[in-house]
Amino acid sequence: MSDNYDGDLTALPGDGTWSDESDWQLTDVGGADEAAGGEHMPVVAIVGRPNVGKSTLVNRILGRREAVVEDVPGVTRDRVSYAAMWSGRRFTVVDTGGWEPDAKGLQQAVAAQAELAMRTADAIVVVVDATVGATATDEAVARVLRRSKTPVILCANKVDSERLESDTASLWSLGLGEPYPVSAAHGRGAGDLLDIILDRLPETPREAAPTLGGPRRVALVGKPNVGKSSLLNKLTGTERSVVDNVAGTTVDPVDELVELGGRTWHFVDTAGLRRKVRTASGHEYYASLRTRSALDAAEVAILLIDASEPITEQDLRVLSLIIESGRALVIAFNKWDLVDEDRRYQLDKEIDRELARVPWARRVNISASTGRAVQKLVPALESALDSWDKRISTGPLNNWLKDVIAANPPPLRGGRQPRVMFATQASVRPPTFVLFTTGFLEAGYRRFLERRLREEFNFDGSPVRINVRVRDKREQRRKR
User: Cα separation of 219 and 304, whole Å?
Assistant: First the structure.
C-alpha cells in the first residue's frame, strides 16, 4: 500500500524520514488572512452596450487578465470591483454588464446593476465600438449620461491603428465630449485614457465605504442555478447579484460586505461549476478559474445543494474542490420550501451515501428565495471557523494520543507493530497534525485517529489533516 492516503489524511511530501524531533521545523501555515486595505478609494465605472470591450479595457487598466472576456455579447452580468493603480494613485474600477436602457428579462437585471454602478461612481467611462460607430443603443446611453452630474469620459475602443483614428470623429455627435481613441486589446492609447481618468477623479471620494480589514471571507459555491446569487441577495437585502432561471447567470465572482448576526462578513458569490475546468471552454473556463481563486481566497465555503433534486455528480465535484482547498465547510440545502416528506426521506439516504466523507460538515436547511432559516448560517459559520482556527497544545495532544493508542494500538505491518513516538500540531487553517512513528500507519487507522481527534477536541466544520513522518531505519539502528 502507498504511503499516500487519498483523502483528508495525507502523507507529508518529501522522503518520509526523520532522525530526531529537533530536525522537524514547525511552521504555522496561515490561511488567507491578509485582507484588502481599509483605504477608501475613488470609483470608476466602465459602462456601455454589450460587446464593446468593457472587460477587455478593465483588464488593460489592471494590467492582468482578471475580468472574464470572450468574443460574444453578454458575458459580464454583475458589477464587479477591482483595485487598480496608475501613476502612484489607487482607485477602484467597476466592470459592468452590457447596458441597454430598454432591456427586458435577464438583460434588464444586468442593466440595473450597471445603473447602480454609475450612481455610486466618482467617474464614468462609457465605451463605444469605434469600428461600428454610434448605434441607437449608444445614443440612448448617452442621453442618460448627459444628465449625470458625475464626470463622463468617452472611450472610443477598437482603434487598433492610427488609420482608424479618424473614425472617432463621428462620436462627437453623442454629446459626451471628446472621444479618446483606445485599443483595449493591444493597449494603444490606454495610458492617455488613464491620465484623463485620474484628472477627472475627485480628490475625495463621494462617500466612505466599509473597509475589508476584519470580516471573515465566505465563498458561496455550488453547481449552476442552485441559488447562490439568490442567497447573496437575501442576505444583503438588495438585488446585488443578477438572478435568472438561466443556469450560469453569474460569471465573475461578486463581493459584498454583509451584516449578519451582529458582525460583518465578506461574502463572495461565485460562478456555478458546470464541469471539470480542463474540459470547459470559452468564458466558462475563465469563470471556473475565478471560482477556484475565490475559494482559495476564502476562509469558509458554503456549499449550496438543491434539496428538491437528487444530489448530483456536479455537487460532489464541487465538494471535492472544497476539500482539496482545505477550507472550512458549511453545507446549505437550499430550496427547502420545495421539499415534501417523501423527498426528505430520500435526501436522508442520499446524505448517508453521497456525503459520507464529510460527516464533520455543518448542515443547514434554508430557502434563499423566502429567507427561511438563513439566520442559522451564522452559528454554523462561526463554529466551522472556530474549528478551522483551533490549535491543540502538544502536551494535551500527546496525553490523549497515548490513551487512544493504549486502548487501540495500530495494526501490525510486516509482522511488526509501528510505534507512535509523539505528535504535534504543525499548523492551523486547516488543523494539520504530524505523527512521528517507527513505521507506516494504515489509512484505516489514520481515519480512526481523525475520528477520535474530532470527538475529543471538537473540530466540527473543518477538515483535519493527519500526516505521518516515519523514522529512517538506518537512524533507528544508529541510535541503538
Answer: 10
Most distant CA pair in the chain, distance: 91
> What pLDDT digit, counting tens, does each position of 396-429 carry?
999 999 999 999 999 998 888 999 999 999 999 9
**Could you tell me where the DSSP H helices lie in 147-257?**
190-200, 228-236
- List strands edge to edge, sheet with 432-437: 420-427, 432-437, 465-470
Residue type, 366: I
Q: What is the helix (H) or strand (E) element at residue 313, kind and residue range? A: helix 313-325
Instruction: Measure the CA–CA gap between 202 and 42, rounded to whole angstroms.
Output: 7
Nearest to 461 by CA among 426, 429, 421: 429
End-to-end C-alpha distance for the chain, whole angstroms: 28
Cis geometry, peptide bond prior to residue 310 (ω within 30 degrees of 0)? no
Rounded to an integer, what distance in angstroms lies between the CA atom of residue 277 and that of residue 346? 31
Are the C-beta atoms of residues 295 and 325 closer than 8 Å to each other?
Answer: yes
For residue 332, the one-letter residue type is A
Cβ neighbour number for residue 124 with a 10 Å cutoff = 25
Neighbours of 119 (CB within 10 A): 11
| Residue 4 C-alpha from the chain's centroid | 28
Residue 474's pLDDT is what? Answer: 53
Give the span between the Cα atoms of 122 and 150, in whole angstroms.
Answer: 6
